[in-house]
Amino acid sequence: LHVAIVGAGLMGGSLALALRPHVKKVTAVELDPDARRVAMERHMAHEITGHLREGIAEADLVILATPVSAILQIIQQLSIWRPDGCFLLDLGSTKGHICAVMEALPAQFAAIGGHPMCGKESSGPEFADESLFQNRTFILCRTGRTNKLLERVALSILGVIGARPLFLEPREHDQLVALVSHLPYFVASLLMQQAALAAAGDETVWKVSASGFRDSTRLSGSDAGMLHDIAVTNRSAILHALRRHMSHVEELIAHLESEDDSALSAWLQERQAEYSAYRDRR
């Protein structure tokens, strides 16, 4: 199998490293010259190029590992660049828009949406890790362009990288990840904003910050362009999650204002029990 991976950052680079020993050929396509240089230094793929059209020209499977906006643009050009068709998989963080564009591809394409539930707050090929996908859930979303052969190829890829497949409908995917993936990004960003505003008047804020603040705000260091793409392509589900979050904030405020210490204690114990149950399931 000849696999072309478009985007050699954290996700694409990690996938290239994981697949390289197991397939006939991996071609990594990276337009940024600095990222391309790092990919070459790390020997991420059998072939590394800065030319997208040429890089995907002979691949059996094209995997799009760029930000969502770029994934959408590339899919819309594929019928021109690959008139013979190919297998197509993406790694985008939202699925509704992407799967809809996949649906519009000509019949010679077989396409399936994908989203590996893993990552780091640091992006770029220097952070790529071939073990990134090990024992992590990898969501697959069927489209009208998904066939049984492509499913077998996708599941084979996931087997090689050690990921656990989970099939979801695109709409269900977007609703679920808005709650457990996208909302945490934005809550972390709000916490960072609040502390930074306070620190503008008194930098003692940073001196007293410790591991709790660091762990809670880690995701605010994620790539802003990636987060922007997530927000604009999953706007409705994220808004719903934020509004639900605000209702729970109001509930906590009410407990504090009431000075009912027993109610506050019960609320905290419930959250602790929920976290323990989540940790056990994971």
Descriptive report:
- There is one protein chain.
- With 282 residues, the protein is an alpha/beta fold.
- Helix content is 56%, strand content 13%.
- The chain has twelve helices and eight strands.
- An eight-stranded mixed sheet has the order 3-2-1-4-5-6-7-8, with helices on both faces.
- Helix 11 packs antiparallel against helix 12 (261-281).
- It starts with a strand and ends with a helix.
- 37% of the residues are buried.
Quick structural overview:
With 282 residues, this protein is α/β, with parallel strands linked by helices. The protein has helices spanning 10-19, 33-41, 52-55, 68-81, 96-103, 148-161, 170-201, 204-208, 211-217, 224-233, 235-258, 261-281; strands at residues 2-6, 25-29, 47-49, 61-64, 87-90, 110-116, 137-142, 164-167. The protein is built from twelve helices and eight strands.
Write the layout of secondary structure elements.
Layout: E1 2-6, H1 10-19, E2 25-29, H2 33-41, E3 47-49, H3 52-55, E4 61-64, H4 68-81, E5 87-90, H5 96-103, E6 110-116, E7 137-142, H6 148-161, E8 164-167, H7 170-201, H8 204-208, H9 211-217, H10 224-233, H11 235-258, H12 261-281
Parallel strand pairs: 1-2, 1-4, 2-3, 4-5, 5-6, 7-8
Antiparallel strand pairs: 6-7
Number of strands: 8
Mean pLDDT figure? 96
Q: Count of helices?
A: 12
Rg (C-alpha, Å)? 21 Å
Q: What strand order characterises the main sheet?
A: 3-2-1-4-5-6-7-8
Sequence of secondary-structure elements = EHEHEHEHEHEEHEHHHHHH
Structural class: alpha/beta
Low-confidence stretches: none
Helix content: 55-70%
Largest β-sheet summary: 8 strands, mixed
Beta-strand percent range: 5-15%
Distance, first to last CA: 33 Å
Oligomer: single chain
Shape: globular
